[in-house]
Amino acid sequence: MNIDYSRFYRGTANLPSYGGGAYKKDTLVKYEFNTKDEQGNKVMDQMSKEETLQAMKDIRSQYGDAVIVEFSGDGMAAFVNSKKGSTIPEDPEAMEAKNAAFQKEITQVDNTLHDLPAYSGLYNADKAVASALENCSKEEKGFVYDIIRQNFLVGNSSSMTEEERQANISLGMKKAEYAAENFLSEENKKSFMEAMESIAKLASAGKADSGGNMNYGVAQGSYLGHGSGLVQTTNTVDMMRTMDQDAYAEYQKIKQKDDDGLSSLKYLTNWFVGAVNKNPSMVDQYEKQSEEYVEKHVNNQKLDQTFAGLKTESKAAFVESLKMFQNNHPNFLASVINKELTAKYWEF
């Protein structure tokens, strides 16, 4: 039975330096299962241990070896149940305290990830953004990278109409304009805005499948270094997915059965060596596909202007103009705007 977990998806963050060699991880994907929403309204029942383990297994199976999937939320009963094998129910107050501590730990983890880079796959744009933010604070970096994660390159758009998705990109561009005006150096403003516009166009041209999962059409490269020293490397798993779908399907089967990761790594390595020997220009062809896609579908993309009227000269001006938009359009992109207006960054 296939279950759509997209409504629990909470974003993706890059991990510039986590592990090494066969055990290197480059991406963190977050899912959150809460029984209540931010207003305290019940949205789901607490999951049984079996349901929790099945959800974790189903979600993990969607991602490659280089991805860590983070699960959180009070709906995941396996994290708050009493110790395995115990037949005596845990005291309710003790369970509540344990869960509160767990939720606090989740918040701390999220805060440390806030300023991690978010990349589009457009190397020149990604490097321009990273360079512009090189001397900014963690809060400022997090603000910009969240634009890319939450406004531009959302992983799943099933909670929005296509009109709302395009408007969300428009909101991201105004947030980028705010960043350029308020905390970027004069010498970086132009290159930063050009880079953000390129990423916004890439996002705008993206297509969703029947489940709302987005495809942005470009190769998902890996990066080394940071800031102005950012260097792009080839993502072998994505190249396999793009260039050899039969091999990728087999790789996915091996990965699901491979607890230590060695079998899938061996398969990936052997595939790469064999594929390159057979077709020495494969890497160039893989990267050329992205270049052709960008030239054909992205460069001339027209961006939505829904939020063009937002004011960007200060925090107060931005928040007030966004509130005014919400008052005039109360049912449009409501969850996104509510989340924006309650974001810690806009407190002043």
Provide structural commentary.
The chain starts with 8 loop residues before the first strand and ends in a 7-residue tail after the last helix. The strands form 3 sheets. Strands 1-2-3 form a 3-stranded mixed sheet, with helices on both faces. Strand 1 and strand 2 (25-32) form a beta hairpin. The chain is globular and about 60 Å long. The chain has 12 helices and 7 strands. The model is unreliable at 80-90 and 104-112 (pLDDT under 50). It has helices at residues 49-60, 92-113, 123-132, 138-152, 162-182, 186-204, 236-243, 245-257, 262-278, 282-298, 315-328, 334-341; strands at residues 9-18, 25-32, 67-72, 207-208, 214-215, 222-224, 231-233. By secondary structure, the chain is mainly alpha-helical.
Q: List segments where confidence is low: pLDDT < 50 over at least 5 consecutive residues.
A: 80-90, 104-112
Number of separate helices? 12
Structural class: mainly alpha
Order of SSEs, N→C?
EEHEHHHHHEEEEHHHHHH
Describe the largest sheet.
3 strands, mixed
Name the overall outline.
globular
Radius of gyration: 22 Å
Q: What is the distance, rounded to the nearest whole angstrom, between the alpha carbons of the first and last residues?
A: 48 Å
Strand-residue fraction? Answer: 5-15%
Helix content: 40-55%
Average pLDDT score: 83
Strand order of the largest sheet: 1-2-3
Give the secondary structure arrangement, pairings included.
Elements: E1 9-18, E2 25-32, H1 49-60, E3 67-72, H2 92-113, H3 123-132, H4 138-152, H5 162-182, H6 186-204, E4 207-208, E5 214-215, E6 222-224, E7 231-233, H7 236-243, H8 245-257, H9 262-278, H10 282-298, H11 315-328, H12 334-341
Parallel strand pairs: 2-3
Antiparallel strand pairs: 1-2, 4-5, 6-7
Helix pairs in contact: 3-6, 4-5, 5-6, 7-8, 8-9
